[in-house]
Design brief:
- By secondary structure, this protein is an alpha+beta fold.
- The chain is built from seven helices and nine strands; from the N terminus they run H-E-H-H-E-E-E-E-E-H-E-E-E-H-H-H.
- An eight-stranded antiparallel β-barrel has the order 1-2-3-4-5-7-8-9, surrounded by four helices.
- Helix 2 (about 55-70) packs parallel to helix 4 (about 185-195).
- The longest helix has 21 residues, at about 10-30.
């Protein structure tokens, strides 16, 4: 009902933030005896104090790039405006998949975007951005560097409505755009080629403030300390991740297919191609 926190009333939002802080305090008290450990697995976002799509590896890196290289304290406003600019779409479930003993993180964001206003036609898919996780060198540190590597779109479908004898019926075409899943865009390299000359920016910082077998809380220490609270989920509930693993060995390192589905990357592709200066 509360959109994982983003639609909550101020009082509800404050109460949720207090509950998160109470959990984090438990970890602070016990950290010396039981250090916080990052657990591999599939984790679904259930609560945040910002828009759910901002748990994406891509947008975490983008926000820190804005802060470090453009305007300080500007990322909150910029990403909220982005959500308004893409208001014709819907953000569905969001998850983090952590693997390889806490050294790899994939963010999954389910999206549906209307194609043409007033026409019963939409595109849906799951945007998966992947990055490498590196723990800070200090003993018992809970700070991780997240280095964006690539982005792809899985389960791309056309959702439509057609008139029939029984009335207007919804339908789904899963094959027309399935080729997009074979494309992987090297979003980290694109960020690097653009931002390295002015200071870099394809990495983000995450702080693990709570973790047990069932619950995980990240905060963004360089981005206002926002929180993302995840609950453990089941791998089979996220078939897009299985699709990515099946396609990875034969995936094409080409931006074309993913750029078609990822309008958020278009400015970066254009600039890299020399269209924009």
């Amino acid at each position: 009902v509360g959109g994982r926190g983003v639609w909550s009333r101020p009082r509800e939002r404050n109460n949720a933030a207090k509950l998160v802080e109470e959990l984090e305090d438990i970890c602070d008290v016990n950290k010396g005896h039981n250090p916080i450990e990052l657990h591999d697995g599939t984790w679904e976002l259930i609560l945040s104090d910002v828009e759910p799509f901002r748990a994406s590896v891509f947008f975490l890196a983008l926000a820190e790039a804005v802060e470090a290289n453009l305007i300080s304290n500007a990322s909150d406003g910029a990403l909220t405006v982005h959500s308004l600019a893409t208001g014709g779409g819907e953000v569905g479930r969001v998850a983090h998949v952590i693997e390889n003993n806490g050294t790899r993180l994939h963010s999954l964001v389910e999206l549906k975007s209307g194609a043409i206003p007033s026409l019963p036609l939409a595109l849906s898919g799951t945007v998966i951005s992947s990055g490498d996780l590196t723990s800070a060198k200090q003993e018992q540190s809970t700070i991780f560097s997240l280095d964006l590597k690539n982005t792809t779109v899985q389960e791309s479908k056309v959702v439509y409505g057609l008139p029939t004898e029984g009335g207007l019926k919804p339908g789904t075409e899963p094959n027309f755009l399935s080729w997009i899943g074979d494309e992987i865009v090297s979003s980290g390299a694109i960020f690097s080629s653009i931002l390295d000359p002015i200071g870099g920016g394809q990495a983000a910082s995450l702080q693990l403030t709570y973790s047990d077998d069932d619950l995980l809380i990240w905060r963004t220490p360089q981005l206002g300390g926002h929180f993302f609270c995840f609950v453990r989920s089941e791998e089979e509930l996220w078939p897009a991740m299985a699709d990515l693993r099946e396609r990875q060995s034969n995936a094409r390192q080409s931006p074309l297919g993913s750029a078609f589905a990822l309008g958020m990357l278009n400015p970066f592709f254009s600039r890299r191609a020399g269209i924009k200066k």
